[in-house]
Amino acid sequence: MRVNAYVLVADPNFLGASLSAYYDHVDRIVLSYDETATSWTGTPLPVDECLAIVKEVDVDGKCVHSPGRYARLDHDPLDNDTFQRQAALDEASGGADWVLQLDTDEVMTDPDVFFTALHRAEGTGTSALAYPSRWLYSRVAAGRYLEASTRLGRPVASFPGPLAVRAGTRLELARQTTCPTYRVDLRPWNTDPHQHQETPVHQVVAPHEAVLHFSWVRDPDTMRRKFGWSGHTAMYSDPAVFRRWASRSARPRATAATSLLRRRDWYRLVTVPEPPGGAPWA
C-alpha cells in the first residue's frame, strides 16, 4: 500500500514534530503554499520559515514543492481552504493508494497504531480514515495542558476531518468528505460531542495512541495571528474568543474545576508528551 501526504505550509508551530512523526511511513509529501505568502484572508504567512523547517526534516528528499495562488480574497476563507486542500490532494494522489491530510499542529503519538488502522481501512473497502485527535486548548507548564473533555473530565475525540483518504477523493468542506469512512474512536461508542450519538465505531484505540492536536497551543501574539488567517476567522474574530482563551489559560486549575458548572466548553488538566523540542516558544 503506497501512502503519500500533503501539507499546507503556513504555520511553523509544531510543523517539524508533525512531519517527523510520519515521515518514515510515507513515500512522498506535497508542500502546498501560497506563492505570495498570503493567507486565505489576506494576512502575511511565514512560509519561508516553514520551508526552512521542512528542509531540516526532509533528509530523504521526499518533499515536493507545490506553490499556487490560494489567497482568493473574493472568496470565503473556508472555500479557499477547501480549494487549496483539493489541489494538494489531487497532486499527492499521483502514484498513491492513500493520502494523509494532517494539519501541521497535529502530531501522531503512535504511528504504528495509526498505520495499522489505515491498513484495516484499506481492507474494508472504505475511502476515508477518521482517526481520533485530542484537542489541546493551551499549554500551562512543561508537559501540562488544558484539553477538551467531557463534563466529568473524561477524554473525548475530535474529528476535524479524515486524517487519511483514498487517492482521488473529492473534499466537501476543508478536509471533510462524504465517502464511506472507517472510524476509530477512544471508546466503543462515539465520544465526539459534535457527532451524532449513534455514529458507528469500527476500532478503538487508547487515549495515548490518539493524535495530539495542538490547535490553540500558541503564545498570545501567535494566537491573534492564527485567528486572523484561519478559515474560521469569521467566528474567531470576535474579541471575546481571545479573551476567554487568555483568561482560561491563565487559570488552568480553575478552568478545569469549574467545567461542571458550564453548559459547554469542558476541559481537564492532563500530562502529555511534549513534541520534540517542546513548545516552540519555550
Distance between the termini: 39 Å
Tally of helical runs: 8
Instruction: Give me the count of strands.
Output: 13
Please identify the top-level CATH class of the domain at 3-136 and 161-220. Alpha Beta
Biggest sheet statistics: 8 strands, mixed
Q: Enter the CATH topology name of the domain at 3-136 and 161-220.
A: Spore Coat Polysaccharide Biosynthesis Protein SpsA, Chain A
C-alpha Rg (nearest Å): 18 Å
Can you describe this structure?
Helices cover 29% and strands 21% of the residues. With 282 residues, it is α/β, with parallel strands linked by helices. It has a domain at 3-136 and 161-220: Alpha-Beta Complex (Spore Coat Polysaccharide Biosynthesis Protein SpsA, Chain A), CATH 3.90.550. An 8-stranded mixed sheet has the order 3-2-1-4-9-6-10-11, sandwiched between helices. The longest helix has 16 residues, at 77-92. It is globular, with a radius of gyration of 18 Å. The N and C termini lie far apart (39 Å). The model has no long low-confidence stretch (mean pLDDT 93).
